Each structure stands twice: as structure tokens, then as C-alpha cells.
């Protein structure tokens, strides 16, 4: 997806539940319309984040595979 | 038959990897993320095992062997285990299967868990068991589907109140069914097994495990202890030691096949210390409490064993306390 993120969060290698927690923490501080890019390699978080970010006003725009078990998740603050 | 343990372990490892079942996540998500996806998966497995264990025991294929009831150990050990799994980034089965996915932290957590549990069970820390007292048992004239040692059986809801185990099992299964199908399940797009298929697969592997090992269903703690003692002290490998080895192999095969294997290395050096500390707390807790999240939750709750019910409550409280302390505190 061709969007320019305002922030990047690289949580590759981190243990459960750090990717989820850090993503939500970052989203809480963001302004409406801003876009967060999360780099992740933990499959469970990849599947849990789309539902989880809704409670902090986030919406997942896209999940792209960028490598072996590595994904780039684009999240928009609503 | 120890090779059967390896096969059951490989199946268990594949199912854990494909379902992403982790009790650390399940327990935390229901409270802090209002997400019941993995809790429902566990509930499906426990429902199936409750009926399955009682059925195969009634058919005379196995005897039910509820875990020893040592209340103080299940309270204190349970709480320590619950805190430990948050620090370690996974429960006992979670860190074991993630070794097969390539997590360096899981290797450290798994080894520190296994070494500490081995120290508590017959090693240098064996003396700590005396702090918690002796197991409480129930004397039964006719043990029926239970395994009795000199007429004594570990307490379950059924044998404490003198009711038919099937009545308790069916009531418990109905309560689980009401929770599973009567409440809304959190939505999740998954690439592997979903909450229902994953739960059924876990339950089936659990029943197969009991039929194969005979003395108990699935477990992790005893398996790590045996695997380490077998490797460094020449103790013969047993069913459950091979089951734990199988989990790692099964998860590795499954992760490679689904292109999810990757060596994952955290950047912050503190993470390594945190997961080792978590593994030590888990090993101590499960060592004294007679089991971990698999022994007590997945395999123990279907027995309606008092030990497993009490341990489960304190696993949950320890997990919530540590999650709150690390991540949810203002």
C-alpha cells in the first residue's frame, strides 16, 4: 500500500505481548488521520492487532508480508 | 511406550503452532484486551477432554489420575507460575512450542523453566516441597474410574462430595458449552486453525495422550524435567520427556511448512534477563504445584480435580497481577 506513515514502530524479535502493547501505546498518543507503520514478526500479534487497535481508535489499513514471517501493518488513527 | 510420546508430542506441537494456543495470552486477553478468542479455544478443548477422559475411563481403557492436592503449593506455586509466564512471554507449552518457531527467548525461558523444575523435583531445591505440606487424599471404598493407591485418591469434586463423576462432568460440560456458544466470540482473521477447530484438535490430542501414556494426559513440566535429567544424568527417557521433545519438533516442522520459522532475537538485552527470571518462577511454581498450565488447566480441569481448580485460579491471578504491574499500571 502506497501511503507514507507518520511513525514507524519496529517490534520485530520482541516477546508476547510487547508488540500489541507498544502498538496501542503509540496509537493513543497520535492525532486523528495520522498513520502508524508497525514492523512485526510475531504471528499471533499480527492476527490479534486488527481487532485490538479498535479500542484505541485505530483501523488497520493493510497487512503486507515483507519477509519470512515478517509483516508491515499500516494503522490509521481515526 | 516412549516412541508414542514422541508421536503425540509432534502432533501436539503442530496443533499448538497452527492454533497459536497460549494460556498466557488467553488469560491476559480476556481481562485486559476484552478478547476471548484463545479462552474459547481452551474451553472447547477442556469440554471435549472432560467428556473424553470420563468416557475412556468408564470403558476401562485408563484410570483417571487427578493431580495431588497440596493447597498451599497450588496457591503459592500457582501465583508464582502465573507471574512467571508473563515475564517469560509465554506459558509452559507456549515457550516450548515457540522454540520450534525460532524464538531465542523461548529457548532461554524453556531451559530456565526446566532446570528450576528439575531442581525442585529431586534436585538441590527438593527441600522446598516440605514447606507446603503433604497431599490431601480421599479414601474410597470403591475408586471406580479413579486410580487409587492403597485406597487413596486425589480429591475431585465428585469424590469429595460422593457423587457420580459423570454427573459432575456433564454439568461442567454444559457450563462450558453455555460459555462457548452463548457468548460472543472475538473476531480474528487467522491463517491456521480457528478457535473451534483448534480447540477440537487440542482436545483430541489430549485424549490420545491419555490413552497412550495411561498414567496421565498431556503435560510439560515433568517432560522438561525428564528430558534434562535424561540428557545430563543418564536417567531413562520416558513418555512425557519424549512428548516435550516432540512438541519442539512438531512446531518446527509446522513453522517451516507455513513459512513462519525465523530466528527471532530481541534488541533489548533486558529482555533476556526478564525471560530467564520468568522461566525460573515458572519452574519453581509448577515444580511445587504438581503441574503447569497443561498439567493443571488443559489436562487437570477435565478431571474436576481440586488441585487443578485451585492452581488454575492462582495461575490466573498471578498472570493478571504481573501483566498489570508491567504493562497496565499508570
Automatic annotation (TrEMBL), chain B:
Any one Gene Ontology cellular component term annotated for this protein: plasma membrane
Coiled coil (UniProt feature): none
Keywords: Cell inner membrane, Cell membrane, Membrane, Transmembrane, Transmembrane helix, Transport
Matching Pfam families: Sulf_transp
Protein name from the UniProt record: Uncharacterized protein
Major localization listed first in the record, in broad terms: membrane
Similarity field: Belongs to the TsuA/YedE (TC 9.B.102) family.
Residue stretches spanning the membrane: 38-62, 68-91, 103-124, 163-181, 193-211, 237-256, 276-298, 304-326
InterPro entries: Sulf_transp_TsuA/YedE
Topology of this chain in the membrane: Multi-pass membrane protein
Subcellular location, record wording: Cell inner membrane
Amino acid at each position: 500500500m502506497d501511503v507514507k506513515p507518520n511513525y514507524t514502530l519496529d517490534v520485530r524479535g520482541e516477546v508476547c505481548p510487547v508488540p500489541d502493547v507498544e502498538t496501542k501505546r503509540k496509537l493513543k498518543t497520535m492525532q486523528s488521520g495520522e498513520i502508524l507503520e508497525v514492523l512485526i514478526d510475531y504471528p499471533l500479534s499480527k492476527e490479534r492487532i486488527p481487532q485490538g487497535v479498535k479500542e484505541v481508535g485505530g483501523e488497520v489499513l493493510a497487512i503486507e508480508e515483507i519477509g519470512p514471517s515478517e509483516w508491515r501493518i499500516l494503522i490509521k488513527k481515526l | 511406550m516412549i516412541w508414542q510420546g514422541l508421536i503425540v508430542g509432534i502432533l501436539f506441537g503442530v496443533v499448538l503452532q497452527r492454533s497459536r494456543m497460549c494460556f498466557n495470552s488467553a488469560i491476559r486477553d480476556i481481562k485486559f484486551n476484552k478478547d476471548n478468542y484463545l479462552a474459547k479455544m481452551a474451553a472447547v478443548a477442556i469440554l471435549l477432554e472432560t467428556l473424553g477422559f470420563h468416557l475412556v475411563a468408564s470403558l476401562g481403557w485408563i484410570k483417571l489420575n487427578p493431580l495431588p492436592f497440596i493447597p498451599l503449593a497450588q496457591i503459592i506455586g500457582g501465583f508464582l507460575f502465573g507471574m512467571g509466564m508473563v515475564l517469560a512471554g509465554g506459558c509452559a507449552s507456549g515457550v516450548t512450542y515457540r522454540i520450534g518457531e525460532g524464538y531465542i527467548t523461548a529457548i532461554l525461558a524453556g531451559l530456565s523453566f526446566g532446570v528450576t523444575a528439575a531442581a525442585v523435583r529431586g534436585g538441590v531445591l527438593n527441600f522446598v516441597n516440605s514447606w507446603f505440606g503433604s497431599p490431601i487424599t480421599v479414601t474410597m471404598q470403591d475408586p471406580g474410574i479413579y486410580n487409587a493407591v492403597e485406597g487413596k485418591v486425589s480429591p475431585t469434586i465428585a469424590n469429595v462430595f460422593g457423587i457420580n463423576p459423570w454427573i459432575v462432568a456433564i454439568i461442567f460440560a454444559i457450563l462450558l458449552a453455555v460459555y462457548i456458544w452463548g457468548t460472543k466470540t472475538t473476531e480474528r482473521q487467522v491463517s491456521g486453525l480457528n478457535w473451534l477447530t483448534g480447540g477440537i484438535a487440542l482436545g483430541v490430542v489430549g485424549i490420545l495422550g491419555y490413552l497412550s501414556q495411561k498414567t496421565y494426559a498431556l503435560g510439560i513440566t515433568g517432560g522438561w524435567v525428564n528430558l534434562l535429567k535424561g540428557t545430563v544424568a543418564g536417567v531413562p527417557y520416558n513418555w512425557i520427556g519424549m512428548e516435550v521433545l516432540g512438541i519442539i519438533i512438531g512446531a518446527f516442522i509446522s513453522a517451516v511448512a507455513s513459512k513462519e520459522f525465523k530466528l527471532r532475537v530481541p534488541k533489548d538485552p533486558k529482555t533476556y534477563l526478564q525471560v530467564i527470571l520468568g522461566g525460573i518462577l515458572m519452574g519453581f511454581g509448577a515444580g511445587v504445584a504438581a503441574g503447569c498450565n497443561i498439567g493443571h488447566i488443559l489436562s487437570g480441569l477435565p478431571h474436576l480435580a481440586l488441585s487443578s481448580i485451585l492452581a488454575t485460579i492462582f495461575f490466573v491471578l498471578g498472570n493478571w497481577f504481573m501483566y498489570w504491574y508491567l504493562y497496565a499500571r499508570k
